[in-house]
TrEMBL record:
It comes from Thalictrum thalictroides. This is 1-aminocyclopropane-1-carboxylate oxidase-like protein. Belongs to the iron/ascorbate-dependent oxidoreductase family. It comes from the Eukaryota. The keyword Iron-sulfur does not apply.
Length: 373
């Protein structure tokens, strides 16, 4: 990727008005898919990575195909104390060293996973006129469809990706407010993910040496936002990214990805591919879990490459707390602190963190650094 982009002319053109180009793109209410539907052969300049962005995203080396994130089998967890102890150890180790792992035998039926991917596909493949009624920059809405949540805030190249965001918990939406194309499966899949999230938080609590219900009791699993991402075919994938380097704003993320691939995790300064596994879900530690665990668990940076094999679809479920509880403070869990392990972060509200994360956008830097003591 590096050599191709560095050879692309990057001189500032006198006739290039970035703000105008961003607005023209956004005003179509058709997203990146709209560009592809119109037969674009060259990607617009607002999507082309500049050399400094390339440095931030590429680190020092190319993607590593020999490493792989841990795969954890949850089979037998309920009925076998020894198996449960082994799973807790595996999840703890993966969350401390990688911040990412895949789970199999997680309890969500395969047909539900398939229907969720297809529901997202159906939404994006509707006529523009049907989708555009959900297209908005108003982040307070329960359903938000747009391209690049930080389109007008980030100084960086836009990502080759469209997203529909649905707030599913703590307040269950009125089904009529959800897009008809994926309404039923969104409701069903969200309930499955909520149950899985509680299970994972119990295991993570024990991995931290806490009581099983600790993370759930402090509100980590109260909220659920479902983001259905659509990464269209890209005619020049070497010039842009599907999602630039970032860590997640959640406590925990549960990701369902289709067969296309492109997700990469930054591990020891190397980009490691996360190949799709049929029936598996990708789990990753979010910034908020790193904060309250006082850096014991790692919120790992990751990205998605652009592709020319066809649309890639993923469904990211961000498990967090209720943003309306703006007075509740979260900081390093007291039981994890000692003289040898003093707090690294100050106590903050989740609203403070979220406002900073959204304002900053995907700029290649961690949002956590602002809250360090």
């Amino acid at each position: 990727m590096a050599s191709t982009v560095s050879e692309t002319p990057m001189e500032v053109q006198s006739d290039y008005d970035r703000e105008k180009e961003l607005k023209l793109f956004d005003d179509t209410k058709a997203g990146v898919k709209g560009l592809v539907d119109d037969g674009v052969a060259k990607i617009p300049r607002i999507f082309i990575l500049q050399p400094d962005e390339l440095d931030k995203n590429n680190q020092t080396c190319n993607s590593n195909t020999h490493l792989t994130i841990p795969i954890i089998d949850l089979e037998g967890m309920k009925n076998d104390a020894i198996t449960r102890s082994e799973i807790i150890e595996e999840i703890g180790q993966a969350s401390r060293t990688w911040g990412f792992f895949q789970v199999v035998n997680h309890g969500i039926p395969l047909d539900v996973l398939h229907e969720m991917i297809e529901g997202a596909r159906k939404f994006y493949e509707q006529p523009k006129e049907v989708k555009s009624e959900y297209y908005t920059r108003d982040s307070t809405k329960k359903v938000v469809y747009n391209s690049n949540f930080d389109l007008f805030r980030s100084p960086n190249a836009a990502n080759w990706r469209d997203t529909i965001f649905c707030a599913m918990a703590p307040d269950t939406p009125d089904p009529e407010d959800l897009p008809e194309a994926c309404r039923d499966i969104l409701m069903e899949y969200s309930e499955h993910v909520r149950r899985l999230g509680i299970k994972l938080f119990e295991l993570l609590s024990e991995a931290l040496g806490l009581k099983p219900n600790h993370l759930v009791d402090i509100g980590c699993a109260d909220g659920l936002n479902v983001l259905c991402h659509y990464y269209p075919y890209c005619p020049e994938p070497e010039l842009t990214l599907g999602a630039s380097k970032h860590s997640d704003s959640s406590f925990l993320t549960v990701l369902l990805q289709d067969h296309i691939g492109g997700l990469q995790v930054l591990h020891h300064n190397q980009w490691v591919n996360v190949p799709p596994m049929p029936g598996a879900l990708v789990i990753n530690v979010g910034d908020l879990l790193q904060l309250i665990s006082n850096d014991i668990l790692k919120s790992c940076e990751h990205r998605v490459t652009a592709n020319n094999r066809g649309p890639r679809i993923s469904v990211a479920c961000f498990i967090s707390t209720d943003l309306k509880e703006s007075t509740r403070l979260f900081g390093p869990i007291k039981d994890l602190l000692s003289e040898e392990n003093p707090p690294i972060y100050r106590e903050i509200t989740i609203k403070q963190y979220s406002l900073h994360y959204n304002e900053k956008g995907l700029d290649g830097y961690s949002a956590l650094s602002k809250f360090k003591l």
